[in-house]
Amino acid sequence: MRILMVNKFLYPNGGSETYMFQLGEYLEQHGHSVQYFGMEHPDRCVGNKVNAYTSTMDFHTSKGLAKIGYALKTIYSTESRKKLRLVLDDFRPEVVHLNNFNYQLTPSVIVEIMQWKKASGQNCRIVYTAHDFQLICPNHQLFNPIEKHICEKCIGGGKGRFVNCAKGKCIHSSTVRSVIGFCEAYYWNARGIYRCLDAVICPSQFMKAKLDTSPILAAKTVFLRNFTGTNRSADADISSLPHLPDRYALYFGRFSAEKGIGTLMKAVEALPVIPFVFAGSGPLQEQVDQIKNVVNVGFLSGSLLNGVIRNAAFSIVPSEVFDNCPYAAIESLTLGTPVLGAKIGGIPELIDDGKTGELFQSGDAENLKAKIQSLWEDESRLNQYRENSKSIVFDSVADYAQKLMQIYQP
Question: End-to-end distance of the chain based on CA atoms, in angstroms?
């Protein structure tokens, strides 16, 4: 089968890229032809045979006329359509698997796929994996950054509700960016573009419930939890990491506010006798590096990250937005490491509270502190959680691909 993976980033940038690269690699290894379409970038590591990619766009750092041009391109992209058509004509995919495409690629790519299908006569399925809430929320997190709390004003009431994004300055607390986000959501929903999707894969039941508030999407959603690419039996040598404590609590991921890092740092600073290891990077790295009982080992991947996870007393997933199906929880539990997770979004679906880990109130630094201290001081409880996690089975990429084929070939 010929499968075209579409994602705005074609280099390691987050969970959606991890998902796409591991899935694409497996499919290729098992006889399928896989190509990729997205933005050009110096770190691009996958691609297509005609080398057609859109120009790199960074709305955050653009200025003057460039910013105005980017604003228009985040709503509709003629370049994305033209470049994608080159790939479609050459590769003639049987499935186009969309991942993150809004703003940089725009839903214009769906328009082009539909026109190409009509012109070529090619039977091509359009499948979308929902890594966030972009189709129902212009800022994609169901979160207002100014009021700093969950916001669901744009869902459940049709395209007219998207004006709440502009009113609430929901995108980067910016009026301009939020108006653009409103225009993008309103325009494409008014056109009914998402009717063209054949299936919408939801990695959590929570995600499915939220997307099902849209009558258009409700008929297309399918629950299929993310797979794990972690090898449970693989050993990893972490002796190369300097100053790593013998026993520690772990956070790994992005150092950003929506991930709950601010709340976690408050709890960590209030527990000076407990050593913590942070593995990652992000906008709050400077603040992380100033905490005396934190060792920041930086961004890790592969067996080295697995080793750090496996050797942790427990890992912490402190998100303050509706996390979908975080790999941090899946990878920890797969490696037998208990998880202390925020009671929000899809996280509670992964943790059996009191058996494989525990939950705390998202955004509550005092509750988080108490949970960390309680777990740290009770090794027998942690050992029981480790033992219980041995019975947890997440889909391997092979299992996932088998289920995916039923969506690719209904």
Answer: 14
